[in-house]
Amino acid sequence: MPMRLTDQPATDPIRIYRYRDGLYAADLVTAALVHFDFFTWLAENPATLEHICAHFAFKPRPADTMLTLFSANGFIEQRDGVFSCTDVAREHLVKSSVWSLAPYYASLHDRPIARDFVEVLKSGKPAGWSGDKAAFDWHKAMERDDFARSFTAAMDCRGLYLSQALAKKLDLTGRQRVLDIGGGSGIYACSIVAHHPHLQGLVVDQAPVDHICRKLIEERGFADKVFVVPGNMFEGLPAGCDVHLFSNVLHDWDVPDVQALLKRSHETLPVGGLLIIHDAFINADKTGPVHVAEYSALLMHSTQGKCYSTTEYAALLEAAGFTPGEYQDTAAARGFMTAVKR
Fold it and tell me: What is the pLDDT of residue 4?
């Protein structure tokens, strides 16, 4: 019998999530400290993001992700757009300090992920998935059946827990049909329908993920309530849904692509339609939480995106023609924002 999507685990897996999500953060610190001597320079040259990018030849997306990680850890601080070293960084991360830990990190110079970050910071392009230089770009790799199956299974097991935490907090009274955009295994659409039985679900994703999704939906017993439509979300979205869900999707893309996806959603939703962004969110002033800033480093390494802040999402939603709501926590450092189409 398939597992009921209203069941919950008896224990809290937060530490297990955080080990995986924060896996690459130490390598980003290593890249900045050992390859660029970043903190020594910043201690002498407080600077804006633009100035930092110009000096080190960094691209804005990875540089912003790096600065958010360092802010969350208390290594740097930002005032009026200018970043400077904190006392912790001056004492322990600046090379000339008697207490500097730079030599302690020097032996990590050749760690593959740390070296990846050097390239990502300068190119703005993602490294191979899991540091595999021979791998396709993650987004291209998802077109391969073997990789798509493996990655979809990974996201499905994560979503089994996270989707229920989301579904329980959503107010979907009066709504009829939810579109899970880039929905992968369909776990979020199935879980939302399980908790809100008056709804139908629709999942849109590209081949070969759509075939994998359809099979998993059938195995969970939702084939009569949740349906799959193959398609490229950038090229258009199915009509007829009054709720759109982006769950762990927008964080894979840079700002222009996020803007394009929100525009597609706005074009397709009816006036008053509900948009839900479920993700790991950076806080409003981009000083944390630490575990989300660490996860953002992983995303910056392997995808074209990062974790966005609540203020960044609010601005993007406003510009796309939505009225954004407040952020709400769910589970395992995730949460959601809703927005209504004007």
Answer: 82
